[in-house]
Write a structure and sequence with these properties.
By secondary structure, the chain is of the alpha/beta class. It has eleven helices and 15 strands. Helix 2 crosses helix 8 and helix 3 packs across helix 4. The structure holds pyridoxal-5'-phosphate (PLP). The site of pyridoxal-5'-phosphate has 14 residues, from helix 3. One of its GO terms (biological process) is carboxylic acid metabolic process.
Length: 350
C-alpha cells in the first residue's frame, strides 16, 4: 500500500494550495510525530516550539508581541476567529460580514457557531466596500477581509475593511491563509501594521512549506484568545483555547523548521519565482486567445472552455475550476517553469 503513488509527488499538481514541504520541515515533522502540543505540561519541547512559531508568524505579519497558536489549518483558524468575535460581543443574534469570495470555511464556522453569514459582492475580484457597509449593523460581530483569495488570489482593501469593522464595534479578521507567505514581498496593505486588524489566519502548511497540518491563528491581543479558553481539569495545564484537544506536534515543529530555513530570503525568492511563473503562464494563455484574470499573487485564472480541464486530468494534470468555470492554476512552490511549459504544450495539443 505504501508504494502506491499519489499525485502528491506533485509533478503535475496545479490545483492545490498545499506543496512539497521544505526538507528541514519534513525532518522536523518526523522527529515530533509522537508529540502533542495540546498537552503542554507533558510535551514541553514542542510547546516551546509553538511559542517560536507564533513569534515568527508575528514577525511575518507585522505583529509585535503576537498571541496565537498553530491550528490544524485555515478552516480551524477562521472558525476560531469567528468564535472569538461571537463570544466577545453582546448580542443574541450575531452576524458576520464577509466578501462573497471568502473561503467556504466561513460557511462552516457560521453553521457550527450559530452565526449568520452575510456576504458582500465583489467588483473586479475585491469586495465592494459600499455593499459591505450596507450589510453591517448593530449585531455584526466580525467583518472579514481576504488577503489572497482562494479562487483568484486577490487582496481585499484591508485598511478600509478594518475601519468598517471598528465603526460598528466589531472585530476585523483577515484571512491570509494562502497569501500570507507571499504578501510580505508585495506592496499590499494587508497586515497588523498596515491596519487595525484584530485576528488573522496565515497557514504555514500552504505557501509556508511546512508539513500538513500547520495552520496559524494570530490575535493582536492575548485577551482576545481568552474568549476561547475552556478549563482542562485532567491536564497539567489548567485551560485550553484550541478547538482540537490532541494536536499535531509534527505540524508545529515543521512550521518552525520551515520558517527558520526560509524567512525572509527563501520566501522572497519563492515569491519572485512563483510570480514570474504566474505572469509567464498568463502571457502564454493570452497569446492563445484566452481571457486571463491578471494575476495579483501567483494564481492564474483563465477562461478556458471546459471540458478542457477533464481532458487535462486524463493526462495527469490536476487543475481546478473557479465557481464561474474558469481554469485555475495555483503557482505553489513546487510549480516550476518546466512544469508549466509541458502543461502549455499539452494545452496546445488539445
Ligand atoms: N482560507 C483560504 C483563503 C484558503 O485558500 C483555504 C484553503 O485553501 C482555507 C482558508 C482553508 O484552509 P485549510 O484547508 O487548511 O483548512
Amino acid at each position: 500500500m505504501l508504494q502506491r503513488a499519489e499525485p502528491q509527488d506533485f509533478d503535475r499538481v496545479l490545483s492545490s494550495m498545499c506543496t512539497v514541504p521544505h526538507p528541514a520541515a519534513r525532518e522536523a515533522a518526523e522527529r515530533f510525530l509522537a508529540t502533542n502540543p495540546g498537552d503542554p505540561g507533558t510535551y514541553e519541547t514542542v510547546s516551546e516550539l509553538e511559542v517560536e512559531a507564533v513569534e515568527s508568524l508575528g514577525e511575518i505579519t507585522g505583529l509585535d508581541d503576537p498571541a496565537g497558536y498553530v491550528a490544524s489549518g485555515g478552516t480551524e483558524a477562521n472558525l476560531q476567529a469567528i468564535r472569538i468575535a461571537r463570544n466577545r460581543a453582546d448580542t443574541d443574534d450575531p452576524n458576520v460580514v464577509a466578501p462573497v469570495h471568502a473561503h467556504f470555511s466561513f460557511t462552516k464556522a457560521a453553521d457550527v457557531l450559530g452565526v449568520e453569514l452575510r456576504t458582500a459582492p465583489a467588483e473586479d475580484y475585491r469586495v465592494n466596500l459600499e455593499a459591505m457597509a450596507e450589510l453591517i449593523d448593530d449585531d455584526t460581530v466580525c467583518v472579514v477581509g481576504v488577503a489572497g483569495s482562494t479562487e483568484y488570489g486577490y487582496v481585499d482593501p484591508i485598511p478600509a475593511i478594518a475601519e468598517l469593522a471598528h465603526g460598528a464595534d466589531a472585530l476585523c479578521h483577515v484571512d491570509a491563509a494562502w497569501g500570507g507567505f507571499y504578501l510580505p514581498f508585495t506592496d499590499h496593505a494587508w497586515h497588523f501594521d498596515h491596519a487595525d486588524v484584530d485576528t488573522m489566519t496565515i497557514d504555514p502548511h500552504k505557501v509556508g512549506q511546512a508539513a500538513v497540518p500547520a495552520g496559524g491563528l494570530l490575535a493582536r491581543d492575548e485577551t482576545l484568545l481568552d474568549e476561547l479558553a475552556v478549563e482542562t481539569p485532567y491536564l497539567e495545564s489548567t485551560s485550553q483555547l484550541t478547538l482540537t484537544g490532541t494536536r499535531s506536534g509534527a505540524g508545529v515543529a515543521s512550521a518552525v523548521a520551515a520558517m527558520e530555513a526560509l524567512w525572509p530570503a527563501g520566501y522572497r525568492e519563492q515569491y519572485e519565482r512563483s510570480m514570474d511563473n504566474a505572469r509567464w503562464l498568463a502571457d502564454q494563455l493570452r497569446a492563445r486567445g484566452h481571457d486571463v484574470v491578471p494575476p495579483e499573487l501567483p494564481l492564474v485564472a483563465a477562461d478556458l472552455s471546459v471540458p478542457m480541464t477533464d481532458e487535462l486530468r486524463d493526462c495527469g494534470w490536476r487543475v481546478s475550476k473557479t465557481g464561474a468555470g474558469e481554469m485555475r492554476v495555483v503557482c505553489m512552490p513546487h510549480v516550476t517553469r518546466s512544469m508549466l511549459r509541458s502543461f502549455v504544450a499539452d494545452l496546445d495539443w488539445y
